[in-house]
Structure formats: C-alpha cells, structure tokens
C-alpha cells in the first residue's frame, strides 16, 4: 500500500509534468460530463473534447516502439530511474517501490520498451485513481439528482489515452497486492482493465478506503472489491432479501393507512435499511457475534423495532393507540416517552440457526446523543461476558446524514474507538442518508463532500451504496460485518436513499425541496424496483411476490387485532436493570481488619518499583495513615472505598480526564516507575489473579459529552459495578449537558432504566476565577424532582425517599463520608445516579481527615444511621451539643468546604452560641435530620450560608424545602431563612484573587458575626 498512498501526490505531479510537457496532450478535458456516469457498463464513451487528437491504431504490444514517448517526459522518467539505480533512497518511497517491482519485471520480459514502461506507469496511476476516487463516479443517488464533479484523474485523457487505445494491450505487471494487480495477467487491453475498474468502483457501491494507511487492510478490501467477476446473490438469498424488503415496505404502508396522522418518522425511501441490517446481523452472527447493542434516532426506528429487533407488533401498534403507562416490576411509574424513543431487547434467531441478542437503547430526541452510550454499554457487555477479543458483542449505530455530519458527539464517539479502555473492537455505523435534514439540503448542512467524511479521520472504510439497489445494500452491510470481525475497528455504510414524504408524515416537503419531491413523486419504491429486477431475470414469479405480500399483510392485520387483548404487564423493555437479589444480598459490612488489610495492599508498592520522590512520600503517608488509623485523607478514603468494593466482588471503573493521577495531583492511582516508565496500579492487586479490568482507572480523551455518555452506557449494564466519571473541573461538565438532562436526570422516568453512575464534579470557591470555581450545583439541584413543599414518607429505612427521587446530589466534607456514599451506591437494592460536588482544597486540608474507625460498616458502631450505612446525610454540629440547646442564637446550615472556614471563624471569634450543621446530602433533602436540628436549637436564627452567588449554589433549592421543614414544626416563615453568601452575579466568580479573598472573608464573618442578618 505504501507506494500507492505516498504516490498520490508524487505520481499526480509526475503525470502532469509528463503530459504538460508533451504538446499532444494539451487539450485534455478536466472532467467527463455527468451523463458518462453510466460508465460502469463496459462501454467507453469517447471524450468529445479530445476527439481531435490523433487516433493511433490498435497495435500489439510487442510491436510498439519508442517513438510514442516524447523526449522530455522520458528524460524525466530516466532521470528518476537513474537516480533510483544509484541510490534507491534518493527517490520518494513510492517511486522506490515502483521501480523495484516494475523494472524487475520489465527487465525479464523481452521486448518491453521505454514507451511501454511509461504507458504502464500511467495505467497504474489510472488503476490507483479508480481505487482512490472511483466512488466519485459511482451511481449512488437513487433519484439521479446528484451533480458531482467527476475527478479529473478518472479521465483517460489525463493519462494520454484515447478511444483508439482501448483494444491495445498494456503491461500492467504483477504486484504484491490484492485485487487486479495480483492476477497473473500482466498484459491486458485497456478496455478490459477499464471495464473491471468501472464494475468494481463505479457501480451502485462507492468504496472509500484509500485513506487507510494500513496495507493489509487495503489489500483485504481490494480482494473483496476487485473480484474477478461481479458479486451476485443466488435465488435462495434473493428470496430472503425480497421477503425482508417486503416487510420493511409493508410495515410503513400499514402504519400509514391505519394511523394516517400519527408521527412515526417513516423509513419510506430508505426501506432497504431493514434487509441490510438483518443480513448484517446474520453475517455478524456467522462470524461469532452473540449480542448487538443498537443505537438509532427517530428515522425508521419503529420499523427497526418491529422487523429487526422483533418487538411484538401488537405492542408497537398499541403505542399508536394511546400507549400504556410504563410500570416496572415494583410498581414504579414513570413519565414514559414517545414511541419512537423507546428501547427494547430480544433474542432473535439468525439465518444460520443461531440466536443473537439484540438491544435497542432508548434515546432522547437529541440526535446522536445516544452514540457513546451504546458504545459504553457494548464495552460493559464485553467485560461481563469475558469477551476478550471483542468479537461477541457488537455496537451498531444508525445515523441520519444531517446529524452524522453536524453533531460533534459523533466525532467524540469515533474518537474513543481505538482507546484501550474504551474500544469495543469496532462499531458499525449505518447512515440513513436521505439527502436532507428536516428542510436543510446537504450543501447547507455540511462542508464536506460526503456526510460520512468525519469517519475518515479514524481510518474507517466507508461504503456508499445506492439504497434502491437492495442487493448492493445487503452486500455493503455484509462487508461491513466482515470488516468489523476481521479488523476490530469502525466501518461505515452510507445508505444513500431519499425521504419519500416530509420530515414526519404531516410535514410538507415541497415547501423547501420542490424539485426533489417532483422526482420522488414519480419514483418507484425500492420494492417495486426489486420486483422488476427479479421478474426480469425470471428467478421469482408474480405469484411468489403476491404470496409474500399477502403473508405480511395478514400478520400485520392479525397483530393489530391482538392489541385489544394486550396485557399491561407485558411492557417489555421497561424492566429495571437486572437487579439480581442474590447479588444484592451480600453483606455490606466492612470489618475493621478488612480495612487494615486492603489499606496495606493499596498503600504498598513492589520492592523494585521506583516511583517519583513525591509520590513515594504520598504512599508512605498512606501506609502510615493505615498503620495508625488516623488522619485518613480524601484520596485514601476513595481508594479504600474502591478497594473494599472490589474485594467484595464488584467491578469499579473510574474514567475522566487525567483521573489516574488526579487533576489536583492527589489520587496517584497509577504510578510510573521513574527509570523504566512502567506503570503500577495498587488497586489491581487486591485479590489473587485479579482480572486487570476489575478495577479500571483510566484517563479519557479530552471529551465530556462522549466520555460521560460512554460511562453512563457502561453503568447501565450491571448493578454490581461502581462506575464513576470525574470532570476535570466541575464546570466542564456543561459540555456534556445533554447527558445530564436527557439521560441521567430523566432516563429512569422516561425509560425505567436505572443507573448508579457517580459523577464527581470538583467544586469550590478558592479564587481560581469564573471557570474553575463552580460546578454549577444549582443546575443539578434544579433538575431534581423531590417536591419542595411536601415532606415525603421518611420511614425508618429511609430508602424510599431516595428511590423515588431522580438522583442524589451530595457535597461531602469528610473522607469517611465520601467513602460511605460511594459504598452506599452498591449496597442497596436499587440504583440511583449520584452527583458529587467533589472537593479541591479539602484534598489536602489539615482538618479534612477521618479516622479509620469512621470507615467500618459494623452495625451498632456509633454513627450508624437508620439508612443502614454510615453515610451521614447531615453532619450535626461538632461541639458536643445536647438534644436541646436553648442558648444557641444562630444555626448556620451550609454545605461543602465553606464549613471549614466557618468553623475556623467561629473558633477565632469564640462564637460558641453559633451552631454549624453541614447538609451533606442536598438532594433528596434530609427533612428528618433538618427537623432534628431545628428542634435542637429552638431559639436559633436560621441561616443558609453558601460561598456561591445568590442565583447559584443551593440557595434556591434549600429555601422552599427548609421552609417546608420549619413550617411543619411551626418554626417561622420563608423570610425567617436568612441568606449569607455572594450577591447575584452573571459570572460564577471573580477573576481577581484579592476580591475573592475579601468576598470570602466577608461572608464567613457575616455568618458567624454578632450582627443580625437581614
Ligand atoms: C441535537 C438535535 N438538534 C436538533 C434536532 C431537531 N431535528 C430533529 S430531526 C432533524 C433533522 C435530522 O436530519 P438527519 O440527521 O438527516 O435525519 P433524517 O430525519 O433526515 O432521517 C433535526 C434538525 C434534534 N432532534 N436534535
Ligand atoms: Mg437526513
């Protein structure tokens, strides 16, 4: 492959030089007229503009003489050859390869002249041009509207050939290359070479692969593309394809006639997607795939659900008739979602007699947002099924042409494809390219030639295929499956089709695409075209066609009748994730001796390992903390949580930018030997023969949207995993806002799918300016769905309150509390997302330490709360207050690191009549514990103190809830809640450090000071 790639510019230049210097070629044309796109038939149409050139007669190769070659160009070639002969390294690698192959062969073939060599060179360039650019001449657009400029290098005239050369024989050589060049036919006529090129590259599939740098991959593709005869399906396969196309077509027709005004985002115009996908799945199953995770948006989703994933038709139809409110097994009711967003999963038999598990992931309206979720879920499946070579679990993404080109998360997802901790061994992408995005034409919707060009950056091969040729679609889809199973990397099928109706069924497309829709109006369906083809070749009779049609219609009608008797409980797809009670009943007690043992394991390093001096010290300190059981810091607490969970058999995975070391250089979970560069991760060595992936900590690519989506998908596969994503700074998480809004906060309500994903968002005001202070706590709180005016049932286990809330938002202030909140994620019988405002300066704060005795989970130990874990939702004042403290004049409620500043100030001014309580779990609101504190301090003024601006932080979330808690105790009104914090602001923080210090000091002093707060 090397010379071909490298040769792309060199050879083009060389040909230009050759031709420009020769007067006889001066009149060549730039491109062939568009009608010549039928060029893939074996007919060569003369280029009218070159017709004035002298037409040589066909001459047998052996009789050719040198006179054909003009002096200057031969001199160029000879110079190049001479230079190569004296020093092969003096010429470009491409020419080096060329001469080594070519001169070697030519020298042993008697009678081969300099002219022949040069013609052969040109011919090689022509072959290469077809490999590179043949797709530009392929017949891709079913509507025939596409106007593409055919690249000049596909023009025979560029190489000095005319019609008269067609039957001349040329020396093509035998190359160490697959496809044409491998055949033992070094001498061929130009016509036969051209015919083969046209058939292979300019038919109904356009292959784009020459951007791939790997020679073996290109050769593999050439072997498949440049076959001796064009591929063809036998009668049996054709029958299956016909049946599948009939299902796809009639399904849409049926919906259209039964629910004329319903929005379904039909597949009409792209019906060949269904046979394409089915054949792709069958081929994938033949090649070892056992499970496929599918992600797709609106277009054709119902058709895929019904015909590919095999969601019962009656169920799909029932959703058209109003639907059923989703109810899970324990009676939880969500909001539900529109029918073309719902997911489901089934086991489907394959053509080869196997079973393949298919799951279609639920997705929001946000196009492409589910891409990385699908990939993450696929990766998790590979982990749990020990699919080491990643051949059993496959991710498939179906895209629209507009969204594939326009949405950045497409690139963010592609970009994960080869990263060791994110790869799934290749995703297959199918673009349903209907050449329009809502009302927008491609020329306004993208800057690139194809909507798939983004995938070229990842060296994925791209098969553009004319959707009206269903067999070509099937062929491209099968090839994609083969590629993925062979090379374990991404591949794209660009299914060029059209959209027969408007964006949805009630939309008028002629407002904006009048010409296109005139053509579409008279354009036969893909099924009609296939009928015609099969009837013409006599393989299938009209009777066969009628039978298929009748069978499909009968089944569709019967399924509609069944809607009426559909049972509510059969709302498949609305299952909570596989919470297996046997897995959940494990004891969650961490015994003190276990803490000691794992503590030692995670703080010791192999003897001959040479860490960085500073890191060595960190580990020595950790060992000391474990030894003494005192002063345990944040990083060690986290490592202990991970380690104890792993020892209990859970999978732990932490990913995000620079998480291995930690943005704030506190974690050091992966150490680097300073001499050898070798890595060592202590958490990988907790149990005998520990699976290296059981604990995974991984620096991610510099993406938020893509990576968070990936981890979300990962977390949804098994409840026995603690999956965490950490933002570099909390505010960067807004790059992943769609994942928070559409999936994490609302996914369970819409789709009844649980996740225990943990999101760590560094947050806190320490003078680092507007972009490194706030994780935008207010946004997460604002999205929480706990009712601010109703105190829920706070029954003893207190689980229901969390279970009924959409997520938990925590701002922990002690290492032990962080440890417990992480463990709580796993040690309960439901899963709920956890948003953690993670600390920055508390990571090394002298007072932010816990003793080991605060870590164990032994029932009955002090501090063991009613929830069954020792995570404290609220930390009461540390000043040994009794149950009733009438002398306290102010109760300051706060959250996060400002507590330590308040406590310092209180000590400084000796304000022993002020109590400070930390609300560690903001959401759901700990009404019971807040009321306990309100009762403890009956005379205290109630203050909410925060370091964030008034329109940010927890203030607006806390106020109505605190008021609700107060009101039920007869303890005042809304205005009795005093606010201390920064004033309202547009930016999250000041950029001036001195201002910050001043503001911070003022608010802390105000909260503790004697002055009344108003
Ligand atoms: C992120 C996002 N932006 C905008 C929209 C609104 N929208 C819905 S469909 C659509 C056009 C999609 O075009 P394309 O990707 O080509 O898919 P098609 O509908 O043509 O199959 C748009 C802009 C959306 N759903 N999601
Ligand atoms: Mg489109």
Automatic annotation (TrEMBL):
Gene3D superfamilies registered for this protein in UniProt: 3.40.50.12470, 3.40.50.970, Multifunctional 2-oxoglutarate metabolism enzyme, C-terminal domain, TPP helical domain
Subcellular location(s) per record: Mitochondrion matrix
Keyword Nucleus appears in the UniProt entry: no
GO molecular function terms attached to this record: metal ion binding; oxoglutarate dehydrogenase (succinyl-transferring) activity; thiamine pyrophosphate binding
Cross-referenced CDD domains: TPP_E1_OGDC_like
Keyword Oxidoreductase in record: yes
Record key words, sorted: Magnesium, Metal-binding, Mitochondrion, Oxidoreductase, Thiamine pyrophosphate, Transit peptide, Tricarboxylic acid cycle
The protein's required cofactors: Mg(2+); thiamine diphosphate
Recorded GO CC terms: mitochondrial matrix; oxoglutarate dehydrogenase complex
Disordered: annotated span: 25-56
Pfam annotation, one family: Transket_pyr
Domain called Transketolase-like pyrimidine-binding: residue spans: 632-845
EC class: oxidoreductase
EC number: 1.2.4.2
Annotated catalysed reactions: N(6)-[(R)-lipoyl]-L-lysyl-[protein] + 2-oxoglutarate + H(+) = N(6)-[(R)-S(8)-succinyldihydrolipoyl]-L-lysyl-[protein] + CO2
Protein's UniProt name: 2-oxoglutarate dehydrogenase, mitochondrial
Source species taxonomy: Eukaryota, Viridiplantae, Streptophyta, Embryophyta, Tracheophyta
